[in-house]
Task: structure prediction
Amino acid sequence: MDMKNSAAVEVIDLAHYWLVVRRQFKKILALSIVATLISVLVVLSLTPIYKATSTLLIEANESKVLSIEEVYGLSGNGSEYFLTQFEILKSRDMAKRVVEKLDLVKVAEFNPYHSSHKKSFSIKAMIFGEGEAPTEEEILAKTIDNFWGAISIEPVRKTQLVKISVESIDPELAPIAANAIADAYIESQLEAKVGLTQQAAGWLGDRLGGLKDKLNVSEQKLQQFREDNNLIDVKGISTLIAKELDLVGERLVAARSERLDFETSYFQLKSLPDQSYDSLNSLPFILNNPLIAKLRESESSTELKVSELSQRYGPLHPKMVAAHSDLTAVQASLLSQMKRIANGIKNDFAAAKSKEKSLLGALNSTKSEMQSINRTEFELADYVRNVRSSRTLYETFFKRISETAETGTLQTANARIVDAAVLSAIPIKPKKKLIVLLVLVVSLMFGIALAFLLDALDATIKHADDVDHKLGFSMLGLLPLLPVNAPNSPPEKAAVRAFAQGEHVGFKESVRTLRTSLTLASLEKPVQTLLFTSTIPGEGKTTTSVNLASAYGQMEKVLLIDADMRRPTVAKQLQLPQGSRGLSNAVAYPETLDESIHTIADLGIDVMPAGAIPPNPLELLSSKNFTDILEQLKGRYQRIIIDSAPMQAVSDALYLSTLSDGVVYVIKADSTKDKLIKTGLGRLEDSNARILGVVLNQVDIEKEARYGGNYGGYYDAYEYSSK
Result:
């Protein structure tokens, strides 16, 4: 079998692990019992610790008689606020308040320098040379630190509640201290608010004086400005100027329109070549004059009259002369009026220009005056605004300082105790039952782990599972451990005769099982020559080979050859005469082969002992004579069993494996290291030896059965018994 491929696929064998636990069960149980007993003693000696919890409600929006948050700009909303309060509760200052309030310096639990600890301090002083007495500050600091460590603050999620817990060996002190922490927190909040209110009131008082001075200065500046500018009502003045500006503007527009009208007529008149009747009669503004229109009507009627008279009378007729005289007078009057109107247009145009200019000057003057008033109004508004803001700020501060002074001591806390801590009769620790149970479970687990560790570190082969797990070879059989014979016991009590003459039925059955396994292993390829070897001397390969030869001797003709010519034991164990010829004699002198073979009648086999020990056994075994003798013996015997030297010491078995049909490797149970066994098997595999399997020898069946092995009632199924 290839050892390199033996571990290619590893399967978790729970039965193997269970066997390991069963083998070490008593030790595991003993370890658990001892550890549990120690834990019981330790737990009984521990001082019980009690825990008391007080529930505190911290409100984000605290109720106040009068709010002053506008003054110092604080807000109590948001998760940061609650986190801040939790940290305040955890602070050393809270612990200090309670220590001083409850005078915990007198409590030995928290004061390491208490008089009850004098004995331990004396021993410590002798060991470390610490002889200086602590100061009061050091005692208080240590007491605060110890009490601080006994406090735990636990916020309740998604609520405004926080649990304040104190652990103490005194069940009565724990609730008192827990409630004291809650009270200390509430008092600290009230003190902080009162102090902050008083501080704000002082600051407001200082600030109020400055604001009053600032208000007076601003009012004086306003009054001085009014006096300097002769102001009574700026708003009324500005309104009057605005109206005047509107009126002048309207008149200027009218004057400008009038001037444009006169300017048109003036330029039409100026464009005439002369001021004759015909020229003036072409001007529209003259024709449109009502007086000219009447004169023209008179002219028309006079001309009509002249025309009518000329039809009746001659030019010299008095009526004709009178009519012509009337017409000339009308035309002269008309021309005179036209000239007068033309001269009037010149004068009106000049007057209109002068009026427009005058109104334009008045408008500019009014604008300048209006701008000056606006500047004055702006400056006045600035002074008024300063006075108003100073007065508003002063009045606000005056109101706040009045409220603060009157309500400084009427602050309410933003926290209250919802559930006060009560006395607890059951300590929270140590949880004695739980500790003992945990020690029991942990010790059992540790014992099991230790058993697995010992099993992993155990390099010996104890049972059949180890052969499979550690070696990867098939096991042909196992031989139980035989009782130790008395020193002067008869030869028939020897272990080599256990199969033939012994009383150990289980051993006999194990040898038969080994014989059967070898028979089955040689079905495909017959095995006539069997080589027995082991890793080191003393593993029982000679006993195994002799007993197996006796088992084969019941069925066929068998020869047992003792090829271990370094430490031969077959002749001695079978009580052969000293100096009997054997293998070395037959190889050296082939003619003495028959004399080197001895018949053991009670075992039913022939034996060839080692004979005289040669100086170099390997050369003797590798000689041609040994090969020839072995071939000759194969013709005589159906089964040849060779007992060779161990693998670790010499290489005899390696060479003999090349001459054998199969190799049986004998291992002493719970003795030989698996590393050495693997080395020996590996050397045989490298020599292309046919390893039929492993025989586990000297197995303590009763011990393995007690440990939960698979050997309980071994070979008792058919009423066989080792007894």
Remarks:
- The chain has a mean pLDDT of 77.
